[in-house]
Amino acid sequence: MGGSFEIILPEKLVANMGWIRHIGFPPFICKHYREPLPGTGHAVCCRGVCRIHYDRVNPLADPLSHLIHDTPLIKIITSSLALLLLASVLL
To answer: Which helix (H) or strand (E) segment is 71 a member of?
Structure first.
């Protein structure tokens, strides 16, 4: 993550702030929202509560740089394996 702090807000508030629904980790468990460009905010919302942090790069602007600068390697590997497993079940 780009910053070392989190802001905690109710999901209803974040959903009404104009942020964009997005994918993220953990997939299928929590909802993810991204701050519109040029912002770098990322809200991870579980059970009606959102934890907001700020990444270095917004993936809406540059997905590859976001993976390089903001995504820990273990999350990339875990997410990739989960998507491969899901694809093999669906196909």
So the answer is: none
